[in-house]
Amino acid sequence: MSNVTNIDHATVKERPVTTLDQQPARAEGRKDPWSQLLVKVGKSQDRQAYHSLFEHFAPQLKYYAMANGMASHADELVQEVFVSIWRRACLYDWQKAAASTWIFTIARNQRIDMLRKMRRSSVEMAVETEDLWQIPGEDDNQPVTSLHRLMSERRVRESLSQLPEDQITVIAKVYMEQKSHQMVADELNIPLGTVKSRVRLALSKLKVILQDQNV
Amino acid sequence: MTRHHPDSLSLMEYSAGNLSEPHALCIRLHLDKCAQCRCQVDTLDSLGAVVMEKQPKVSVSGTMFDDILARIDSSTEPRPQVKMQPKTSLLQKLLGEDINNLPWKRQLGDVSVLDITGKFPGQNEQVVLQKLVAGGKAPAHTHRGTETTIVLQGMFSDHKGVFSQWDFVVLTEQDEHKPVALGSEDCITLSVLSAPVKLTGTFTRLLNPFIR
């Protein structure tokens, strides 16, 4: 019996790369503790898991709000994001995104939505924040898409620390302070072209700009 | 299959949530049909998450978690369901009408336009739909500032190539082009024109309240 198992195992190893790669990627997804906690919140409304997520992400989100110039609304943003996490956790699928990425997109959308409500003029807009900023989910259940997402997240984490400081500075200003590339150039007193080339260099090192775009 | 994509820098500004609503709309319409760019935005969202994680942390008040639990417990809102494909497309939702039945204004020969800037209150850009009748030619023209365009229907060609449905084009003041609608369908595009920044009365009204 054990012989048979061994043979099976060997056969699996011979399989084409695409099939084989899914195993470590899935395992990697399971290893991410925040994603595990978020799954628990979604499946069983686990308040202890929810509290652990709060302890980890709330201080990050508060900084995010403050860096965005929303200091007087920072607590409100953190609360909105967490209420949203609780409500939407049942839709979370760890195979599609890590918890940190999922929470980042909720924070981004909530920030946009709050700003929009605050400056709303008498005319209402026909489309909602989510219509513009939530990525469409067509074909999302394809394993290749999930695989790509999990791999890219790990890769981004690992390679971001290797980027030179000037590239990280520019990226952080775009993501944390909502500055356009032009505003970053003005603030750092460098030409717009320099900002753009730093970002392009960083993105190609992070492999955001894919060589093989058919993935 | 789209061949002309937004550049990675625009996708990054989309992922960071920094684009104006009309620009976000152009990117969003493209993403709807382009798996390749969706993949890039997924990775960029991960980049956003990792950048956020590496920033300083600011502690939150000790009672906040209890406040959140109280809100959750008192909420009677039903839990969200997995979203089905919406019955109306984003464009229809925005325009309130099929794109071919809009009150187009004939401009010059084969060109009709419809200014929809009013759909985006509080924005500093002009948003226009343009229609070139099938086989029609637009007169040669240049652009004021930067014009971001997405093809919504049909296709057109100019000196830069052929642009078909969901293709993305950015033209600047340097680009003079003379588009021709190809194929049997009217070519309809959505364009966002960045107006030169002039500090007039209307502009100050639009200033983001959080600009320091």
Q: How is this structure best described in words?
A:
With 215 residues, chain A is mainly alpha-helical. Chain A folds into 2 domains: 120 residues, Orthogonal Bundle (Rna Polymerase Sigma Factor, Chain: A); 49 residues, Arc Repressor Mutant, subunit A. Helix content of chain A is 71%, strand content 0%. In chain A, helix 3 crosses helix 4 and helix 9 packs across helix 11. Chain A starts with a helix and ends in a 10-residue tail after the last helix. The N terminus and C terminus of chain A are likely disordered. Chain B has 212 residues and is of the alpha+beta class. Chain B has a domain of 97 residues: Jelly Rolls, CATH 2.60.120. Helices cover 30% and strands 22% of the residues of chain B. Chain B is built from 6 helices and 9 strands, in the order αααααβββββββββα. In chain B, strands 1-2-3-9-4-7 form a 6-stranded antiparallel beta sheet, with helices on one face. A 3-stranded antiparallel beta sheet of chain B has the order 6-5-8, with no helix packed on it. The longest helix of chain B has 19 residues. The C terminus of chain B is likely disordered. Chain B: This is ChrR family anti-sigma-E factor. Chain B: Pfam families: Cupin_7 (PF12973).
Write the layout of secondary structure elements.
The complex is a heterodimer of chains A (215) and B (212).
Chain A: H1 2-14, H2 17-31, H3 33-44, H4 47-67, H5 74-88, H6 99-118, H7 129-133, H8 143-160, H9 165-176, H10 181-188, H11 192-205
Helix pairs in contact in A: 2-8, 3-4, 4-5, 5-6, 9-11, 10-11
Chain B: H1 8-15, H2 21-33, H3 35-53, H4 64-74, H5 90-95, E1 105-108, E2 111-115, E3 125-132, E4 147-153, E5 155-158, E6 161-163, E7 168-171, E8 180-182, E9 187-194, H6 201-206
Antiparallel strand pairs in B: 1-2, 2-3, 3-9, 4-7, 4-9, 5-6, 5-8
Helix pairs in contact in B: 1-3, 2-3
